[in-house]
Structure formats: C-alpha cells, structure tokens
Amino acid sequence: RSFMRDAEAIACSRRMNSLTLNRHTEILEILEIPQLMDTCVRNRYYEEALELAAYVRRLEKKHGGIPVIQGIVAEVRQSAQLMLTELIQQLRTNIPLPTCLRVIGYLRRMDVFTEAELRIKFLQARDAWLRSVQAAIPEDDPYFHLTKTVEACRVHLFDIVTQYRAIFSDEEPLLAPEQPALNEGAIFHGWVLQKVSEFLQVLERDLQRGVGGRLDSLLGQCMYFGLSFSRVGADFRGQLAPIFQRIAAATFSKAVEEAVEKFQEEMNSYTLISAPAALGSAMAVPVPAAQPGTLQPPMVLLDFPPLACFLNGLLVAFNDLRLCCPIALAQDVAACLQDALGKV
C-alpha cells in the first residue's frame, strides 16, 4: 500500500511536470509581465503598458488566490504608479495640445481619478509649469519683469485655457446622478479668477516699485492682455483702470512733493540781494516769439531761480502724467496742485 501511494504521488508529480513543460511558454510569458510592464513604462510605450495592466486585472479576477499571481499583480501596480507619476510630470512641461489630449486619455483609461479630480490634477500640473516660467523671469528691473510677465501670462495662460476647453467639456456631469450636483465650470472658472488675481497683484507690486515714464506702454500691453482674455470670457480690463489710476496719482503727487521740497531748500539759501545785479541793468535779452497755440512760462521767472525750478518740477510732473492721464484724476490732481501752491 505504501508503494502504491508513493507511485501515485510520483505519477501525479510527473503529470504536473509534463503539463508545466507543455505550458512553459505561456507560464514564462506571464512571469515576464512585470518586467515587460516596467520596460514599456520607462520607454513611454503607454498604450502597451495599459493593455498589460488590463490583462493583469483580468488575470487577478480569475486566479487571485495564487501567490505567484498576487506577486505579479503587486509588481504591475508599482509600474502603473510610476506610469501615473510620469504622465502627471509630462503635464508640468511645455507640451502642445495633441500631447495633452494623449496624456489625459491615458489617465482616463487608468481609471485612477474621477472626472473632477482629473480636471483639478490637470490645472494643478499646468499651473506648476506656468509658475516655473514666471519664476525664471528676472526681477531686477520692474519694467522688464512686468513686460515679460504680461507676455508669458498672455501666451501660456491662453494656451492652458484652450487646452482645458478642448479636453474637458463643461456639459458633462462631474459626479454620478446620485451624488450632489456640482457646477461643472466652478473648478475652471475658480482657477482662472485666481490666476487673474495673482497677475493683478504682480502688476501693482511692480508698478509701485517704479517703471519710469513708461506707464502708457504697460497700460497698452495689459489692455491687450485683457482683450485677448475676453475671447474666453475672462475680460479683466475693468480692474486695470483703478490700479493705473492709483499709480499715476501717486507718481504725480510724489513729483509735486519733490518740487515743493526742492523749492523750500533753495529758498533757504536765496535772497533778492544775491540775485545778479546785471539783471536789472543789462540790455534786454530778446525773447523768442511764441508760436501760435503754444504756452510758455513768463521770462520774468528767470529773475527768481527757485520759482523757475519749482515751475520746471511741476511741468515735469504734468508731462509724466500726460502719458497716462485718467479723467478720474482731475480732482485729485487739482487738489494736489492747490496744496503745493499753498505751501509755496
């Protein structure tokens, strides 16, 4: 009896070995799936990697209790996680619309995120890339930094909006019917408002640092930026006027204050006795005739240098204001000028 039992065990083992030998190719293919999956992911053959992952999921459903299959599933999941990381990392680079469509298509097939989470991930990744572009702009010169920021935001932000609208449709529900309703455009519009708000903060900060007499040039660039965004329903030109109005008023007020301070300093060391005596006895200097329609300060101001310098300071302030002069500043400018004249 013992011999019979040993013989049956040996025969059973022989049959298993024969079956294993006959199915050697199929078994080897299954055992090599993790290595093949890793190779596909590292070489960016994402289509083949997704097919392998789907096959492994079917294999797990049929033979999930086998330890070897469990090990294969675990290794494939690690490769799938690496693939997920690489796909999201691609969204953090400068990629065109066709590549974005492919990447989002792969992420959808991986079935890792819900539709709402996928939108958030897309916006987060593209936002990270946009921030890296903005961070690379030198901040030494406020005018250069602002012009490059306007250009970067206008081009890249518009591209991101175009990509988002091409990939995601706001007509599709983000949640299942049994879940609470969610405004489809809330995610996207909230992100756009955040980017516009951040740009306005950068604009005001750089303008306060000083851009010289180039306020009109920046206003034109910003208005063009806002006009381009009106095509996607995010026209923010109305928020630009108060910012430039405040900066123009502050610049004019500062220039007038400097003129008043300089006048007071010169008056401390000026006396009528110190004026050149030749002014009264010298021959009259011919005054050039003023052209029709032009205004010139009276030449008698040359007898009083502090007053002439004060007038020059005011004219410089008005010339700078003329480049970017909102009508709403009329009362503020008049009040500032009246206050300065009162001090003089």
Describe this structure in words.
- The chain has 344 residues and is mainly α.
- Among the domains are: 1-25; 112-170 and 186-235; 246-270 and 298-344.
- Helices cover 72% and strands 0% of the residues.
- It contains 14 helices and no strands.
- It has helices at 2-22, 24-31, 33-42, 46-63, 67-90, 97-110, 115-135, 142-167, 186-209, 215-229, 240-268, 278-281, 305-323, 330-343.
- Helix 3 (33-42) runs parallel beside helix 5 (67-90) and helix 8 (142-167) packs parallel to helix 10.
- The longest helix is centred in the last third of the chain and has 29 residues, at 240-268.
- The model is unreliable at 172-181 and 277-285 (pLDDT under 50).
- It comes from Penelope pileata.
Write the layout of secondary structure elements.
Blueprint: H1 2-22, H2 24-31, H3 33-42, H4 46-63, H5 67-90, H6 97-110, H7 115-135, H8 142-167, H9 186-209, H10 215-229, H11 240-268, H12 278-281, H13 305-323, H14 330-343
Helix pairs in contact: 3-4, 3-5, 4-5, 5-6, 6-8, 7-8, 8-9, 8-10, 9-11, 11-13, 11-14
